[in-house]
Amino acid sequence: MKSGYSEAGTSNAGGVGGGGAGISNSAGSPITNIAQDHLITILLLLPMDSILSFAMACKRFRALVFSDSLWESICRRDWGPKSVDALKSSYLHSQQQQQLPWMRLYKQVSRLESVSCINLTYTDGELVLPRPRASHSLNFVSDCLVLFGGGCEGGRHLDDTWVSYIGKDFQKMLQWQKVNSGVPSGRFGHTCVVMGDCLVLFGGINDHGDRQNDIWVGQVTCHETLGITLSWRPLDVQSVAPAPRGAHAACSIDDRLMLIHGGIGLNGLRLGDTWVLELSENLCYGVWREILTYPSPPARSGHTLTCIGGTRIVLFGGRGLGYEVLNDVWILDMPESCLKWVQIPYELPNIPEGVSLPRVGHSATPILGGRLLIYGGEDSYRHRKDDFWVLDISAMPSINAQPTTLNSRGLLAKMWKRLRAIGYKPNSRSFHRACADPSGRYLYVFGGMIDGLLQPAEPSGLTFDGELFLVELVLQP
């Protein structure tokens, strides 16, 4: 997302060269006779600088470049249609206006500097709330937050499921409702992703240290009389399946595929394999296949996989085989005919405050603008973090880029950006969970392990958190 709005807006509306002999004086020029819909289609194939330069050609093109219809289309191209539709829905709900200022909103998102935190945890002791936990799952699906499982004080797993209806009022205080489903069995370190209006849960670890590789599908239903219900059912898969594991990473792709990577397998061994689960249209059965590529991300646990733009997967951080905390970034493009992992190399000293980037047990959530918001985690000394970082994959090269391009300092300078946090100040934490609303403007964070004791690295010194807070992108003119 490059600046240049003001330059285009104040440019001469005459010819391209500014000498009056440009397109505007050529009444018979074929490009001036192209229908507006076709012009928009052409413009959407161009980078932002070229689109803004197009406004200098003539008055008609200038009006088109600064039109709401074009900028809504640009937002759909760069942010994805689901994000834009959800943003329109929430905006109309709160502002009661008919049209979003798309160009201004695009500039605000591209210049994002800070986030605002709001505590959504009730202090009323009469309410029943989920108990403090870590390594659980938290998802936004069917206008609801769904919380399942996790580990708690004493090293015990949890098997409870909690649901809270949000609707379009993202800043309201939430009321949790416990759902008694009886399945899946209790676990922590599992993954749970959203596919359409369903949840797909995989793996995890129980109290006895048993790793699992079962698959469950959950569906939330809102009844006028029964309230919110959540039903889980096992997913039928063939005999080929990933080895049992926990503390792995997963993401969903186009509501039909689930990708997993790494984790802690049998005998505490960290894994480095990548698997994709393809589900049937009705989510009744699925087929696993392993993605074998070289090179590929080294074995790790406590890392993140995040899907951006529907097909591009970003892997970040975690703890490696030697117990070291990692800060590497890998990309996998799913539509490619030949799937392969590509590492994006960068040097921490070249990034402002980049020395704090290595982490494990963090969250990496897609946000408005097609970027990742990375929050929290812990370093190699188990010092927990409270910082927010944006990882902008639009600044990254394509999967087929040459190594010389991958090492461009100018490119990498734009890849990472630390955001300022204002408002409520939550505890530093790791192994929490975070999820965003469909627009990507509001992020919910629950639980995790927090500091506060003299020796938090010892099992007996772990402190689990039970607060829920909201992180809102601060959009300013």
Question: Which keywords apply here?
Answer:
five-stranded mixed β-sheet; alpha+beta; single chain; 477 residues; disordered N terminus
Largest sheet: 8 strands, mixed
* Poorly predicted runs of 5 or more residues: 1-26, 399-407
Number of helices: 9
Helix content: 10-25%
- In percent, how much strand structure appears in the residues? 25-35%
From the alpha carbons, calculate the radius of gyration and give it in angstroms: 24 Å
Helix vs. strand class? alpha+beta
The coarse overall form would be globular
Instruction: Kindly report the spatial arrangement of strands forming the biggest sheet.
Output: 22-23-24-25-1-31-28-27
Distance between the termini: 16 Å
Q: Mean of the pLDDT scores?
A: 84
The overall strand count is 31
Protein name: F-box domain-containing protein
InterPro entries: F-box-like_dom_sf (IPR036047), F-box_dom (IPR001810), Gal_Oxase/kelch_b-propeller (IPR011043), Kelch-typ_b-propeller (IPR015915)
Pfam families: F-box-like, Kelch_KLHDC2_KLHL20_DRC7
Organism: Carya illinoinensis (Pecan)
Task: Describe this structure as you would to a colleague.
Pfam families: F-box-like, Kelch_KLHDC2_KLHL20_DRC7. It comes from Carya illinoinensis. InterPro entries: F-box-like_dom_sf, F-box_dom, Gal_Oxase/kelch_b-propeller, Kelch-typ_b-propeller. Keywords: Kelch repeat. Residues 28-74 form the F-box domain. With 477 residues, the protein is an alpha+beta fold. The model is unreliable at 1-26 and 399-407 (pLDDT under 50). The protein has a domain at 1-66. The protein is built from nine helices and 31 strands. The strands form seven sheets. It has an eight-stranded mixed β-sheet with strand order 22-23-24-25-1-31-28-27, with no helix packed on it. Strand 8 (191-195) and strand 9 (198-205) form a beta hairpin.
